[in-house]
Design goal:
This protein is an alpha+beta fold and 180 residues long. The chain has one domain: Transposase IS200-like (Alpha-Beta Plaits), CATH 3.30.70. It is 33% helix and 14% strand. The protein has a four-stranded antiparallel sheet. Helix 2 crosses helix 3. The radius of gyration is 17 Å and the shape is globular. About 3% of the residues have low confidence.
Length: 180
């Protein structure tokens, strides 16, 4: 089996893509309140700052900044995944099981990228905000309810019409470089 090497830098900022096992399902948006609870429960136990996040039907993207001296994002994702899965199970939802009695809700791996600088951070935050439009879930960035974009608008970081002038019909836009 391939051994993945993860970059772990205490106090760093990271971009993540995390997906559910059934990549055609709507599990995350259909149960977004349970996911929010799992994230908040994990943040209370092991603090981190959510710089940006978007929840789509079958995957999510997030940018987190960890506290100084702490590089354990893997433990936090494990807590979020377990908390969400447990909440689904408690709600009575029938879940497909794996060996050892575990439920098969999440893909076991996820994508992680260490944010290098302010330009890289902006690139990833814009990618997150624009992602629902790219995937055809919304016509405009402000139309997708499960995004930290709305927090940025409330805080005056961007205006509600951010992203309207972006891209082309293929979804190339913020945070994404089109293929030649």
């Amino acid at each position: 089996m391939v051994q993945y090497r993860r970059n772990r830098i205490a106090g760093a900022t990271y971009f993540f893509t995390v997906a559910i096992a059934d990549r055609g399902a709507r599990l995350l948006v259909d149960h977004v309140d349970l996911l929010r609870q799992a994230v908040e429960h994990t943040r209370l136990a092991r603090p981190f700052y959510v710089d940006a996040m978007v929840v789509l039907p079958d995957h999510l993207h997030a940018v987190w900044t960890l506290p100084e001296g702490d590089a354990d994002y893997a433990g936090r994702w494990s807590g979020i995944k377990a908390g969400f899965t447990h909440a689904l199970s408690k709600s009575g939802m029938s879940l497909q099981s794996r060996r050892k009695g575990e439920f098969r809700v999440w893909q076991s791996r996820y994508w992680e990228h260490t944010v290098r600088d302010e330009d890289d951070l902006r690139h990833h935050v814009e990618y997150i905000w624009f992602n629902p439009v790219k995937h055809g879930h919304a016509r405009r960035v402000e139309d997708w309810p499960h995004s930290s974009f709305h927090r940025a608008v409330r805080e005056g970081i961007v205006t509600a019409d951010w992203g309207r002038e972006v891209g082309d019909e293929r979804g190339h836009g913020y945070g994404e470089r089109p293929n030649p």
